[in-house]
Design brief:
It holds the Pfam family Peptidase_C12. Residues 1-96 form the UCH catalytic domain. This is UCH catalytic domain-containing protein. Belongs to the peptidase C12 family. GO terms for molecular function: cysteine-type deubiquitinase activity. The chain has 96 residues and is of the alpha+beta class. The chain has a domain at 35-95. The protein has two helices and three strands, in the order αβββα. It has helices at 3-21, 68-82; strands at 37-40, 46-51, 58-62. The protein has a three-stranded antiparallel sheet, covered by helices on one side. A hairpin with a 6-residue loop joins strand 2 (46-51) and strand 3. The radius of gyration is 15 Å and the shape is globular. It starts with a helix and ends in a 14-residue tail after the last helix.
């Protein structure tokens, strides 16, 4: 897929799943503005965020690598406290 096709697929899947899988009510009539971000831990020292609206990664605190998932979730909770419409979609490897 091209980047544009991937973005469209993620957006469509998010729209389809949000009303049924989320923990909060999703108003189907509300226009959703999608801004996709990704957290990553490259240096085993920081929680980094890639945001398509920024030209460089943004650091969101330190991590030891083992607690990265919990610490990234804590950053998401901060985002939710500022805007309750913030939603999260986790991409992970399939298990057999």
């Amino acid at each position: 897929m091209t980047p544009k096709e991937r973005e469209k697929a993620v957006r469509e899947n998010h729209q389809a799943l949000a009303p049924t899988e989320g923990q909060t009510f999703a108003d189907p009539n509300e226009k959703v503005c999608h801004c996709f971000i990704a957290f990553f831990n490259k240096s085993v020292a920081y929680i980094n965020k890639l945001d398509g609206r920024k030209i460089i990664p943004i650091r969101h605190g330190a991590t030891n690598g083992e607690s990265f998932l919990q610490e990234a979730a804590d950053v998401c909770k901060e985002f939710v406290s500022r805007d309750p419409r913030f939603t999260v979609l986790a991409l992970s490897a399939a298990t057999s």
